[in-house]
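Our preliminary data section would be incomplete without showing what the modeling component actually yields. Below, a chain of 256 amino acids is followed by its predicted structure, encoded as tokens that our downstream tools consume directly.
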Amino acid sequence: MKESSVPMDKEILIAKLLNLAEGRETPESWQEWWNEHEAELESLLNRGDFLKLKPCKHGFKWVPVFTSQKGAVAILEKNGVKCNSSHFYQEQYLEELDAFCKEQKRQQREKQKEFKDRHPAWFKQYPKFSKALANVLGPSDEILPAATEAKIDKQEELLKFIFPAKVREFFLLSAGINVSTGVTIMLSGMFRMTIHGEQYCVLGEFWKEADGDQLLLRTGDETIWYYAHEQDKVKPLCNDMTELLEKKLARYLNAN
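Predicted structure:
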């Protein structure tokens, strides 16, 4: 500890650190004391110890006092002061984390049920993808209603491109989706593109490797291709639209 002329002395600090290390503080009492004495502590402690002791900002109530406790124990040990480090803060944090996880699962189940109630055909046709999609849907995400055969035919005519059968099946379920985590497939947003001399129809975006990477179709082929624009490479991604949704995108959404 550095020499200081501030009112707080080493004995007062050690007593407070013992209270913290041995579990006699609450998140409120510790934060209040820190706020009152932060300037003194910054003068009294070296920079490393100060930062170890400083309560972090966190959404969980018990995390700041739990992390500060570790700093307190380290400072006490450095000064040769024995303490009986309490597990109380850790136990409270784990209880809080468990309650948070249970609440998240409850909300996920509610979102899935609401999505299933509103879109039962999705769960019938693409169960894995639909379950993953229900978990990540945000306020700005879009799920469009089904496209008509006539609308799909018109888009094919505009693009001069015949959609693979399984892509058509998807658009008969929805005219498109736009998910902020990096998946966009929109019937009205499709366009033709030439890459390395080959013609493709752009189905949408899939941010598998980088923002803006694209899903591609080729004439007379159910295969879904993938354009990694940072590498400037076209790669086969999966055999068809169903595999794209049920395996590739479901796994991607679950990870995000």
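Residues 88-118 form the longest helix (31 residues). The beta strands are 142-143, 176-179, 183-186, 191-195, 198-206, 214-217, 224-228, 233-238. Preliminary results of this kind motivate Aim 1 of the renewal.
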